């Protein structure tokens, strides 16, 4: 992606992302009151994940970062996935037994 | 290193160079390019460690919520969704000005835009803390601090508010550090305007700010969007 040189070019790159983030915030807030039952948590955290991905890729510019930087960013998620999987293997097995 | 993503048309300043890059005897442009890459790489390693730190906090939340879903819904209904949503909007807007500052800092003609975006970022950060402070005041007045005299009868509702105070407190500390770092950049830009364009410290600070934004994006549904339909 070529770097912008005018103030207008900077705003054209970041303003659409911000509008998307604010729209997702409005949707998340509205859907929290919808009778979605067990899906409520999945929907609200799904929207949060989408927003975080937009921030990481477009505001923090991972989309144009080198492979090493992207790999470093992915490491945090990978290790967190191990943390969550192993802990939940224990927590959920005890929950189903009781 | 000739990574197009970190190439910049901003002027090269010998004062941006730090050890050990200036001792390698590289041409200045190449040394600064190495250093810029090293700075970005370093902050991402820090961010990955922070993801694990906050990941452990969210793990506590997820595990306790799996066991006490009803009590968590009851407790979460007590949080103030107006303050929460307002603060999310404030923080997302600060993310916008931070991203704009990072982009603008790569160009000398956009020095003033960089400076104003930094000022907007720090101001919005302070606005977030102000709203958070008002929310804390209301929470304390409503006896939502775990311990004796807690508002709700369910014991596990106190676990939710334990997480609420701990996570928002740690996030607030991170945001305060971020405001300090941005204020430092504003000071540099005010005293030495020529040192802002092309300075790797702008991108590093803005990446940190983006991370603090992301943490809040997950705290918002965890604290404010639970148990609302009931």
TrEMBL record, chain A:
Its main location: membrane. It is found in: Cell membrane. The chain crosses the membrane at residues 40-60, 67-89. InterPro entries: Caa3_sub_IV, Cyt_c_oxidase_su4_prok. It comes from the Bacteria. It holds the Pfam family COX4_pro. The keyword Membrane applies. Keywords: Cell membrane, Membrane, Transmembrane, Transmembrane helix. Signal peptide: none annotated. It is a multi-pass membrane protein. The keyword Ion transport does not apply. This is Oxidase. It comes from Methylobacterium longum. The lineage of its organism: Bacteria, Pseudomonadati, Pseudomonadota, Alphaproteobacteria, Hyphomicrobiales.
TrEMBL record, chain B:
It is found in: Cell membrane; Membrane. Its main location: membrane. The keyword Membrane applies. Pfam families: COX3 (PF00510). Gene3D superfamilies: Cytochrome c oxidase, subunit III, four-helix bundle. PANTHER family: CYTOCHROME C OXIDASE SUBUNIT III (PTHR11403), NITRIC OXIDE REDUCTASE SUBUNIT E (PTHR11403:SF6). This is Cytochrome c oxidase subunit 3. It comes from Methylobacterium longum.
């Amino acid at each position: 992606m070529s770097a912008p040189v005018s103030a207008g070019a900077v705003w054209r790159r970041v303003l659409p992302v911000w509008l998307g983030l604010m729209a997702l915030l409005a949707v998340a807030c509205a859907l929290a009151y919808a009778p979605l039952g067990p899906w409520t948590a999945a929907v609200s955290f799904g929207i949060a994940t989408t927003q975080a991905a937009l921030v990481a890729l477009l505001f923090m510019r991972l989309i144009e970062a080198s492979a090493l930087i992207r790999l470093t960013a992915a490491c945090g998620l990978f290790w967190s996935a191990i943390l969550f999987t192993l802990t939940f293997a224990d927590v959920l097995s005890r929950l189903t037994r009781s | 290193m000739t990574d197009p993503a970190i190439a910049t048309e901003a002027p090269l300043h010998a004062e941006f160079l730090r050890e050990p890059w200036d001792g390698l005897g590289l041409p200045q442009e190449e040394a600064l390019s190495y250093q810029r890459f090293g700075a970005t790489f370093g902050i991402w390693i820090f961010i990955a460690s922070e993801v694990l730190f906050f990941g452990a906090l969210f793990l506590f939340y997820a595990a306790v919520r799996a066991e006490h879903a009803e009590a968590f819904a009851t407790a979460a209904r007590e949080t103030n969704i107006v303050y929460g949503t307002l603060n999310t909007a404030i923080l997302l807007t600060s993310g916008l000005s931070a991203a704009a500052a990072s982009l603008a800092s790569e160009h000398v003609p956009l020095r003033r835009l960089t400076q104003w975006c930094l000022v907007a970022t720090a101001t919005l950060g302070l606005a977030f803390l102000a709203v958070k402070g008002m929310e804390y005041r209301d929470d304390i007045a409503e006896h939502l601090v775990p311990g004796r005299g807690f508002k709700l009868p369910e014991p596990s509702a106190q676990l939710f508010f334990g997480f609420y105070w701990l996570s928002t407190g740690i996030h607030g500390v991170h945001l305060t550090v971020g405001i300090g770092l941005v204020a430092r950049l504003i000071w540099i830009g005010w005293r030495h305007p020529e040192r802002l364009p092309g300075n790797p410290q702008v991108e590093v600070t803005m990446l940190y700010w983006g991370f603090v934004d992301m943490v809040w994006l997950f705290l918002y549904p965890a604290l404010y969007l639970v148990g609302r339909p009931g």
